[in-house]
Every structure is written in C-alpha cells, then in structure tokens.
Amino acid sequence: MQGLRDNFLMAMPHLEDENFAGSLTYICDHDDNGTLGLKLNQPMELTLEALFEQLEIDASDCPSLETPVLNGGPVHRERGFILHAGSPEHWDSSIRTGENRALTTSMDILHAIAAGRGPEQFLICLGCVGWEPDQLAQEIKDNTWLTVEASDEVLFRTPAPARLETAASHLGVDLSLLSREAGHG
C-alpha cells in the first residue's frame, strides 16, 4: 500500500476512538517504515498570536494572528508541524508531501510567518498521528478510513470544521449515510 502520501484519510462514522472520531487526516509520509499524518479539522483554543507570544516571537508583521492552531494528533503534542504550500528547500527541516506541498518542523518557518515572509498558505498543528508499517493498510481494509486525494481547496481554503465534509464531497459521499460494514463478498 504505497501511494497514500498526499491523500486525506476520512474517519468512517463508526470510528469511536476519541483521538480520531470525526477526523480528517492529511498523510504527509507513507512508506515501508510507517505513516505520518496530521489531523486537520480540530482547531484548538490556541491562536497563532498566542503561540507566538508563548514562543516569544515578534509577530507584529504577521497578517494571520487570529488563525487557530490545530490539534494535529496525539503523538508529539509538544512539537509544531507546519503544513504549507510551496517547496521544502526554503526551510531547515522540511520534507515534500505533495507536488506543491511540504511539511516543516523547524523554527525558521515560524519566524518567517511571524515576519510576514513565510508561505501564504499554511496550517500549524501541535502533534501528529502515526501508524506502524502495514497498520494503516489493515485499518483501511477493516473499513475504518476512506481515502481521497488531497486538495488545496480543503487544506487552505475551507474552514477547519468543514474540512471532513468537503473532502468527502470530492468523492460524492455523504459520510452520514455510510455503513460500518465493508462491501466484502
């Protein structure tokens, strides 16, 4: 099951795990070593302005101070993960996640965003999600997740609470009408 990178995982309605129920996850990396993703539809009470204050970063030139920080997942909750449009080459610790998307974990991008010089399209998450090798493939076979190709519309132009439904609509699916049973014959 290679090829899940740069896709969304939509939690099926019957998924009751408190960490993933009703979640939309973006797959940043997926290979033989496992899978790394970020939940994208659970805003925290924390705004970008408050985050910059906590980190003592001058953000007087940042146009996005009211942007909510997202709960990216239950793993590494103390770490920041910035998913953004553009190339990873501009930042110290960055990987390509899609054709024109990257994931950066270094402070240089936060300083650039605070100064108004960072990427125009970005999401800041605290924490991430991860799966061991073959674990996610089995969960998909068990009808826990539905997948769809990621889009900038959902990532950067849809408010966080509406991202799951918007991603599902790209498949022509209404998640509230889906069954917990997989179509095995």
Question: Would you kindly provide a written description of the structure presented here, covering whatever features stand out?
Answer:
- The chain has one domain: VC0467-like.
- The two termini are about 20 Å apart.
- Helices cover about 20% and strands about 35% of the residues.
- About 35% of the residues are buried.
- By secondary structure, it is an alpha+beta fold.
- It is globular, with a radius of gyration of 16 Å.
Give a brief description.
It contains five helices and ten strands, in the order E-E-E-E-H-E-E-E-E-H-E-H-E-H-H.
Features:
single chain, 185 residues, alpha+beta, VC0467-like, 10-stranded mixed beta sheet, 10 strands
Distance between the ends:
21 Å
Strand count: 10
Going by CATH, the architecture would be 3-Layer(aba) Sandwich
Unreliable stretches (pLDDT < 50, length at least 5) are: none
Estimate the global geometry from the Cα principal axes.
globular
CATH topology: VC0467-like
The total domain count is 1
Task: Report the structural category.
Answer: alpha+beta
Helix content: 10-25%
State the CATH superfamily name: VC0467-like
Q: What's the gyration radius in Å? A: 16 Å
Mean pLDDT: 91
Task: Please write the CATH class name.
Answer: Alpha Beta
For the report, how would you describe the main beta sheet?
10 strands, mixed
| β-strand amount | 25-35%
Q: If helices are DSSP runs of H or I spanning 4 or more residues, what is the number of helices?
A: 5
- Give the SSE string: EEEEHEEEEHEHEHH
